[in-house]
Amino acid sequence: MALSRKTPIERIEYAIIVSTLLLLVVVTVQPIVNLLAVSLSAPGKVPGMSGLAILPDGLSFEVWSVLLQHPNVQRGIINSIFITGVSTLIGVVGTALMAWGLSRPNLPGRKALFILVLVTIVFEPGIIPDYFVNKRLGLLDSYWSVILFKAVNAWYLIILIRFFEEIPKELLEAAELDGANPFQVFWHLVLPLAKPALATISLFYLVFHWNEFFRAMIYLNDQGKWPLQVVLRQFVIDGDKIAIVGADSANNNTGAGQLNLRALKAGMILLTIAPILAIYPLILKFFTKGTMSGALKG
Amino acid sequence: MTDRQHVLTSSNVGNVPINATRRKAGRVSAFADGWRRWWPYYVMMAPGILFFLVFHYLPIWETRIAFEQVRIVPPNVWVGLKHFQVLFSSSVFWQVLANTLIISTMKMVFFLPVPIVVALLLNEVRGGSLRKFIQSAIYLPHFLSWVVIAGVFIAALSPADGAVNNLLGMAGIAPRSFMTDTGAIRWVLVFTEIWRSAGWDSLLYLAAIIAIDQQLYDAAEVDGANRWQKIWHVTLPGIIPTIATLFILNAGMFLNADLNQVINLSNDVVRSKIDIVDTYVYRIGLQTGEYSLATAAGLFKAVLGTMMIVVAHFISKRLTGKGVW
Fold it and tell me: How far is A83 from chain B (nearest CA, A)?
């Protein structure tokens, strides 16, 4: 900003503004850091630990090793990676292909297709009809019922269309004059130019599918197919210790059964958000841009 | 756009006859020509279109079971509005509808101002890296699922060892079990919503603030305006369109009190206070198996919701030039 002499009052004002925001940071981050501290504390120290603690009391990786060796958790990790990976791939490819057509201003039937998409944004018939469609297609208890949920997201489609529309017309026309067909133009010209936009919607899909749990909860009866979010729900919300450590050790208080449920829950929550944290720098980079330039809500 | 078209037409004045004949000749087999040129696009769009038809339009067709009696042995029997009559005479339905409206209203009143204030404060932070640090922290919860957030808050609100009650304890206040407190649970919904999205939503306002003409601030400075006067007379007026748009759009989504949030923060003790239309549909439909009644409730909400979104869209478009799409 312009050069300005700072009066003492202005300095105090500024200090208040910054401390308010830093307080917000603490309120946002502390609950998560506390979970980390609890999950890493020595098992004996966990019961008395304050919710305000940000450092572990003693140090133990037992919670993490129990969790990572637990068959349900291991399967959850594999399922989540599989579901998220496949649905993101399908989503990005399907969305890009559809956006390419819809970004051409002279495409016959363009308006009708736009309406087709917009209707799905404003009218959502709810979960029961959706359930029956999946049932009719024989997708219940299949990974596909979850993978195909919002496989092509109408909002992300619109973001990508807007981006494709900004590719200079001259470039596309030049390629067409050179005899390139629409497939070639798409592959050799549009996709390379759209890399940032594609990265953005890939991340949108990645985060969306990683966090999705409701469809998995209602469509997947087979526990072996549950993604991490549903496994997490089973023992954080439903608080089922037996599901985590197994009936034997829970009842006899042996092995993992000796671990504190609070610490196990904390570890499980962190395990579920670990991938999000891992890609968070990328999320910050692309989501902020995508949200500021694209649709109103991400 | 219009300028460019204007330039093109005026420079093409001499060619008009040629263009016209070419166009006329093309019209004979316009469809075939169009298809010859555009089929590759339709091939590429086919998977997407198919997806929308199967997973968005088939469900719309399936809503007909709201008007049918579902039979174990098909076909179902058409019963008209019978399920809607049952629904509208059910006190539970009115209770969940009231809950939905109450929760949405509370969120609207207490949530909406928060991101605006956060954006205004963030805009005052001068150090680029300090600002980035704050932003990185407060955006994070937006990317966490409600299962995770529920887990975080069940821990943070725990009566014995949760951060909130530990803090209250320091102030000498007796611990309270917020998650099982019928008087507190709606506030838990409001607060977790703020925790999750206020930071992220501030980005939308911040984008609007950054777009404000710097000269307005310089002029205000020359006039001797202090920090608060600049916020009040320059920044706030500058983001009023964004505030209006987001307010209207939120109003359009009024019936969506967030299924994922409620389902994860709910429990038997507080259910009656936060049971919303969506959780009601889920419970009576998929858990009790009253498919038709549940579909009727869902359809009622969908139709009402659509009307609200469409109205919100046009109001927003009219007032601010920005709509839902």
Answer: 16
